[in-house]
Amino acid sequence: MIRSDQEDALARGLRELAGDVPDPGNLAGKAAELGRRKLRVRRTSYLVAAAGTAAAATLAVSSLASTGGPNLLPGAGSSSTASSIGDLTEAITVDCLDASGKNLGVNVGQPDSQMGSKETPGQQATRWAAATEFTSRNPEATAVIQPRGPATLVIFKEPDGIVRGVLQFDQVDGAWVLSLLRYC
Amino acid sequence: MDRDEEFVAFASRASAGLVRLGYLLTGDYDLAKDVTQETLARMYVAWPKIRDQGRVHAYARTTMTRQVHDWRRRHRMGFELPTAELDNHNSSADPAIDLANSMALLAAVRSLEPRERTVIVLRYYEDLSEIQTAETMRCSVSAVKSLTHRAMTKLRRYQLDSEDTVATKGKGQS
Asked: Using CB atoms, which residue from A7, A21, A28 is nearest to B40?
């Protein structure tokens, strides 16, 4: 059994150790800026959720199966849209800041294959996430499915509400087609 | 005072303390600064709520602890000491190494498993009770007791090993 004087020595030692840590300088300004950005993302996500229909379903991405999926066309810009109803993903801010605040960049574009499928958008998004290793990069993200008129958005969110990816599916001849993507 | 001014005033006062806590939890100064910045950014988002509830410091501590945990998980971080550093520690010329010695203590704490390290820092640096530690770490009080016991046993063993090594080297030199 550890005696209390050893515990006292440990507490004293930890305080001394902490006392040797240099002053970090001004972190407050940067933290506030990062916080403002998080707040904007959260508000945008909230507005998007409010605008969607009530038929939103959540499913855990990490528990779903992995098969093949479409790849993103490299270099496709946000202005290039394969969707006949326009780019609905544009209204949603995808935040690719890592834990250190470094921006890893958002991939924006359209898939190189636009085959329709009888699978639901949720099922297709899950296959896409697994096939592109999005799931392993964002293991805590869950998919929120939001019907938006003739299209459906699948929004991948972290538990704290930060959006890591948005997929837009359009309905064509009774099949769901993945038309646009934005993701980390 | 608006939200930004109020938050920046708090963050300016609190950041050095949070970096110190982060350093003890991670053993890495630069990482401690990064984790502090992320912690403060999350506090900014929740600022009106945590300010009104008067639990700013508890929120900071909890967020910091979870940030470190998340960081470890995402980056598969280990906290093993480099061999050279251990050798350097063990070859101290002074046989009276104890846990109050900063270098020895740093090495010893770094040798702990992440959750053991966290419980030691929260209990003995932050002076939290077992219940508060359990709430911060989102685990049971019995888990805190168990982790504390394991960590203290390891720290004591580490200290004894260090003394044995120094004593052996001392004999070899005579």
From this structure: A28
The partner residues of A142 in beta bridges, in order of sequence, read A60, A157
The answer to whether the CB atoms of A7 and B152 lie below 8 A apart is: yes
Q: What is the pLDDT of residues A60-82, one digit of tens each?
A: 333 232 333 333 333 333 333 45
Kindly determine whether residue A16 and residue B24, on different chains, have CB atoms separated by under 8 Å: no
**From the list B8, B23, B74, which residue is nearest A18 (CB)?**
B23
ipTM: 0.74
The answer to whether the CB of A147 falls within 8 A of the CB of A128 is no
Q: What is the pLDDT of residue A102?
A: 65
Residues from chain B contacting residue A26 (CB–CB below 8 Å)? 12, 15
B91 vs B169: CA distance, rounded Å: 8
The pLDDT score that the predictor gives to residue B60 is 92
**Residue A184 CB coordination number (10 Å):** 21
Q: Where are the domains of chain A?
A: 4-183
CATH class of the domain at B79-174: mainly alpha
Give the span between the Cα atoms of B48 and A136, in whole angstroms.
Answer: 34
Question: Which of these, A27, A22, A2, lies nearest to A101 by C-alpha position?
Answer: A27
The residue of chain B with its CA nearest to that of A136 is: B74
What is the four-CA torsion angle of A168, A170, A175, A178, rounded to 10 degrees?
-30
Lowest-pLDDT range of A40-49, B82-91, B112-121, B139-148:
B82-91
The Cα–Cα gap between A163 and A143 comes to: 10
Alpha-carbon gap: A25 to the closest alpha carbon of chain B (Å): 8
Angle between helices A28-51 and B29-52 (to 10 degrees): 60
Out of B36, B45, B106, the one facing A39 most closely (by C-beta) is B45
More confident residue, A5 or B122: B122
CB contact under 8 A, B152 and A2: yes
Indicate the SS3 state at residue B92.
Answer: coil
Do B125 and A15 count as a contact with CB atoms less than 8 A apart? yes
